[in-house]
Amino acid sequence: MIGPAGASDVPAPPPAEGQAVARERAVGGRLAGIGQYAGFIPAIVLYGVFFIAPLALIVAYSFWQTVDYNVVRDWTLDNYRYFFSVSTYLRTFWATIWVSVAATAITILIAFPFTYWLVRYVPRKIQGLLLVLVILPFWTSYLLRVYSWLNILGERGAINRLLQWVHITDTPVSLFLYDRPAVILVLVYLYFPFAALTLYASLERFDWDLFKAAMDLGAPPRTAIVRILLPQMRTGITTAVIFVFIPILGEYLAPQLVGGARGVMIGNLIVNFFTGAQYTRGAAAALLIAALIVGLLLVFRRSLQVEDPYRA
Amino acid sequence: MREAEVVSPHAGLVKALLGAWAALVYLFLFSPIVLLVLFSFNANKYGTFPFTGWTTHWYGEVFGNYQIKDALTTSLKVAAEVTLISTVVGTAAAFPLVRSRLPFRSGITIGMTLPIMIPGLLIGVSLLILMTSFFHVQLSVQTAVIGQAVYTTPFVLLLVAARLQGFDTSLERAASDLGANTFNRLRYVVLPLIMPAVFAGALFAFTLSLDEFIITLFLIGAQNTLPIYIYTQVKFGITPEVNALASLLLAASLILIAFAFLLPAVLRRGRNAVRAGRA
Q1: How many CB pairs (< 8 A) connect A and B?
Q2: Domain B57-278 = CATH 1.10.3720.10
């Protein structure tokens, strides 16, 4: 709010530029002087103290040590060494990666045909409404979206009750809860809206005349999709992968509620470390997630061109 | 586009298959939520199949439960403070983000969306370290408010920035030509025009705060918000009472979000109506 106030402090315009031009700059367009940045001050305080500083602190903690519940500021790699020396943790680390990869892949594979259908076969007027229906669950509580699956999966869940009710089985099948497949299912459910939205934005911009041209030249639809459509959607697909993969890496609740002991991911280990007051080891585990995120962004950096964030 | 389909011999089949796929997607997206609401009205005390009759008994339980009342009070208090902070901080930052001479503008914008992008778990644990080990403050409602505000502010910022971006600057020039000073220009031209975005941002922030779970879990200490209360109950298995509470929270979120989406249009129409009435 203070930002535009700085507009009145515009230095006198060089004589060559007319008065009108100068005022245009001062009023509607760009601001000038130090005052133009004043609006950032509250954000800088909030994000400097409560976002950047804590992240720096957690990096430092991951290299420090906890001795008798006190943090000793000796720089060491012990926390990381410890993490990778415990076989359960190591297994959880790899499991987190494959669960994230599997969930992301399934999410995209479900979302792609869906958005393709939405863009190609649905009249434009209804597209918006159908898309809103997809994102609607995203705006409801994340906890409740995980919780709602407990009603369905599990020994006393809807699927089992239904099976017993119609006498397909008499003993409850425990297949549906407390293992990794259940976790992947719920993760796909949680992050499907992200993928659908990103893929939609990308498909919607696609020039279908190119597609038609390919088919006119004799390409069967499948070839046209693989050779024309997919290469053009690379940025969109990459963005979708990133938007889905990153939050899944740090997932805590889904594995906690539907994964049980066999569905544990790094997020659960981190929470255990912190509730056990092992801050430095927890910090190292948290940094492993951050490292995986950075690694992912590096892998995909070529196909991620930063566009004007206000477009789309 | 249409001709292209004619070329393919299986066009009809492909269309039908994709349509069926889409139907399955919607079934997948909505059946958990629909079942949740359905079970909250189910007389069966295990909160699951079979359906033994309609009842609003569980809702009565929810309203009579003092723990839920406490959690609701905390939730509303936290949400109000988070909304205030993120609306002020986000709106203030939107101006220089859009209008100042800024190097690396798109980089800074992406940096500002980082709190949305990175897992909430990381925000939660890093703030936990900062609060307890660095500042040595007791965890409380206030620490949870700060953590949530870090997460919700970018939403307000992006909404208001988008609105400022599409702002007709000639209006401000006109006001200035007519002799308005900076304050009046802000008060009578800029604020009314961006208000819908600010309101929408505030509503988003409020809803996100009401639903936020993971950051709050780390930072709230001994208090309960509604999601934290539900979480403590879920550990003991599902109950129809939690289903009822969940349905209420679900309804509240959806109503708030509908408002946030519809508000700008409604405000615009209202203003147009007033203008038309004057003319």
Answers
A1: 288
A2: yes
Inter-chain CB proximity B119 and A289 less than 8 Å: yes
Question: What average pLDDT does this structure show over A41-46?
Answer: 92
Show the 3-state SS of A214-250.
HHHCCCCHHHHHHHHHHHHCHHHHHHHHHHHHHHHHC
Q: Identify the pLDDT of residue B10.
A: 74
What residues does each domain of chain B span?
2-40, 57-278
Structural domain total, chain A: 2
Residue B137 with chain A: CB contacts under 8 Å: none
Quickly count: other Cβ atoms within 10 Å of residue B112's Cβ: 23
The DSSP bridge partners found for residue B42 are: B54
Tell me the per-residue pLDDT of B248-257, one tens digit each, with 9 for 90 and over.
Answer: 988 888 888 8
Q: For tokens 């594979």, what's the residue?
A: A109
Q: How close B47 comes to chain A (CA, Å)? A: 8
Chain B residue with the nearest C-alpha to that of A40: B93
CA distance A62 to chain B (A): 11
Query: How sure is the predictor about B275, in pLDDT bands with cuts at 50, 70 and 90?
Result: low
- Between A210 and B167, the more confident residue is A210
Span B105-125, pLDDT tens digits = 888 888 888 898 889 999 999
The mean-pLDDT minimum among B45-59, B124-138, B178-192, B248-262 falls in B45-59
Q: Check pLDDT > 90 for residue B76.
A: yes
What was the ipTM of the complex prediction?
Answer: 0.85
With CB atoms and an 8 Å threshold, state whether B157 touches A270: no
Alpha carbon distances (Å) from A168 to A157, A172, B46: 15, 10, 21
Do A53 and A103 lie in a common domain? Answer: no
**A66, A90: one domain:** no
- CB-based contact B243 A151, cutoff 8 Å: yes
Residues 6+ apart with CB under 8 A from A22: A10, A13
A200 and A222 inside one domain: yes
Domain housing A25: 2-72
Q: What is the pTM of this model?
A: 0.84
Q: Chain B neighbours among A 76-105 (CB < 8 Å)?
A: none
The torsion defined by the Cα of A128, A130, A135 and A140, in degrees rounded to 10, comes to 120
User: Is A208's CB within 8 Å of B1's CB?
Assistant: yes
Question: Residue A8: what are its φ and ψ, rounded to 5°?
Answer: -75, -15
| B33 to A46: CB separation less than 8 angstroms, yes or no | no
CATH number at residue A200: 1.10.3720.10
Please report whether residue A265 resides in a domain.
yes
Q: How far is A42 from chain B (nearest CA, A)?
A: 6
Which of A56, A72, A88 finishes a domain? Answer: A72
- Please indicate, yes or no, whether residues A168 and A90 belong to a single structural domain of this protein: yes
Cβ <8 Å between A42 and B93: yes
Those residues whose C-beta lies under 8 Å from the C-beta of residue A285, and which sit 6 or more positions away, are A83, A89, A266, A269, A270, A273
Q: What is the pLDDT of residue A271?
A: 94
CB spacing of B183 vs A5 below 8 angstroms: yes
**Looking at the domain assignment, is residue A299 inside a domain?**
yes
Q: Which residues of chain A are within 8 Å of residue B112 when distances are taken between CB atoms? A: 43, 47
Tell me what the mean pLDDT of segment A52-66 comes to. 92
Residues in chain A: 312
Confidence of residue B178 (pLDDT cuts 50, 70, 90): confident
Segment A152-163 mean pLDDT: 76
